[in-house]
Write a structure and sequence with these properties.
The protein has 2 domains: about 160 residues, 3-Layer(aba) Sandwich (Rossmann fold), CATH 3.40.50; about 120 residues, N-(1-d-carboxylethyl)-l-norvaline Dehydrogenase, domain 2, CATH 1.10.1040.10. It is of the alpha/beta class. The radius of gyration is 23 Å and the shape is elongated. The protein is about 50% helix and about 10% strand. α11 packs antiparallel against α12. It binds NADPH dihydro-nicotinamide-adenine-dinucleotide phosphate. The site of NADPH dihydro-nicotinamide-adenine-dinucleotide phosphate has 22 residues, from α1 and α4.
Length: about 290
């Protein structure tokens, strides 16, 4: 193991994600000092050789690198309030889900205290950390990221630095979470509909990979059309897709299943149609969603 790989690291926040982060650092051999508001959550990590800190400030004082995973930005503010003066010369990597604006404000705050600030987004579940599938996105101080990178590699080899704007990782996070959650909502609605039709969810999901597998190509195609500002409906037009969509809504409504998500989507379709985009491809819904006619 290289000297770099043994860099001490402090982990602030030992919820589901923070505990998994600390375990990954310990597994990679990093001396790990841990702190959590509810101290008992450190017990299992102390058994794995983590060092318990009495406060966030004490944890930061004991390592050149601090990784934060708390519920939200308010929790980060509460946890770090007393710790600011200890941050000088340290690298602070904040993996707490935040808005881009919160990340930029947190970077200013950390900068005032003399820390190099890196904001990160975890696109993985806690059990996924340390596996090749985990994706982590970072932005902010590049030199801070380069310093932290050998340690952060314990979380995933798939760490990607996105640039100096501290809010950029959070922007990617929000956009990717939108893709994930709305897709997952589609799964929930699909299973509710299948069950109402007497089809077991387990029978249905045999076929979901074929449908979900279409998404990466469609996403790339949509992004390309948006960037070109040109929306030829070669494969599917908004008007034909809306007809299929209306059929889906009818089936859902007939079973008394909540149509709220579909109704919001239908409204976007209707705005695009009313603006004369019926012959365009589905990518034209992007500017419609963003408010253009
Ligand atoms: P948990 O609810 O399991 O843990 C929340 C953590 O925040 C706990 O350590 C909790 O401390 C702490 N906390 C909450 N409020 C305060 C406060 N006011 N002051 C100090 N500490 C506080 O959440 P997760 O670990 O799941 O999530 C952590 C972050 O990771 C979130 O931003 C989440 O969005 C993100 N994330 C989580 C994923 C997941 O699958 N779990 C996936 C991707 C990102 P205490 O124990 O004392 O309550």
């Amino acid at each position: 193991m290289s000297g770099e790989a043994r860099t001490p690291v402090a982990v602030l926040g030992l919820g589901l994600m923070g505990s998994a982060i600390a375990r990954a650092f310990l597994a990679a051999g990093h001396p790990t000092v841990v702190w959590n508001r509810t101290g008992a959550k450190a017990d299992a990590l102390v058994e794995l050789d983590a060092t318990r800190a009495a406060s966030a400030a004490a944890a930061i004082e004991n390592a050149p690198l601090a990784v934060v995973s708390l519920l939200d930005d308010d929790a980060v503010g509460a946890a770090l309030r007393e710790a600011g003066p200890r941050l000088r010369g340290r690298v602070l990597v904040n993996l707490t889900s935040s808005t881009p604006e919160q990340s930029r404000r947190r970077a200013e705050w950390a900068g005032r205290h003399g820390a190099e600030y890196v904001d990160g987004a975890v696109m993985a579940v806690p059990q996924g950390l340390g596996t090749p599938d985990a994706l982590l996105l970072y932005s902010g101080s590049e030199s801070g990221y380069r310093t932290a990178e050998p340690v952060l590699r314990a979380l995933t080899e798939q760490g990607t630095y996105l640039g100096a704007d501290h809010g950029r990782a959070a922007a990617f996070d929000a956009a990717l979470v939108s893709v994930f959650w709305l897709s997952l909502f589609g799964v929930s609605l699909g299973i509710a509909l299948a069950e109402a039709e007497g089809v077991k969810g387990s029978e249905l999901v045999r076929f979901t990979p074929a449908v979900v597998g279409l998404l990466p190509d469609m996403a790339a195609h949509t992004a390309a059309q948006v960037e070109a500002g040109h929306y030829p409906g070669h494969d599917t037009s908004i008007s034909s897709a809306y007809t299929a969509f209306a059929t889906l809504r009818e089936v859902v409504a007939r079973h008394g299943i909540d149509t709220g998500v579909l109704d919001a989507t239908g409204e976007v379709f209707r705005r695009a149609l009313a603006a004369g985009h019926g012959a365009d491809g589905l990518a034209r819904l992007v500017p419609t969603l963003a408010g253009s006619r």
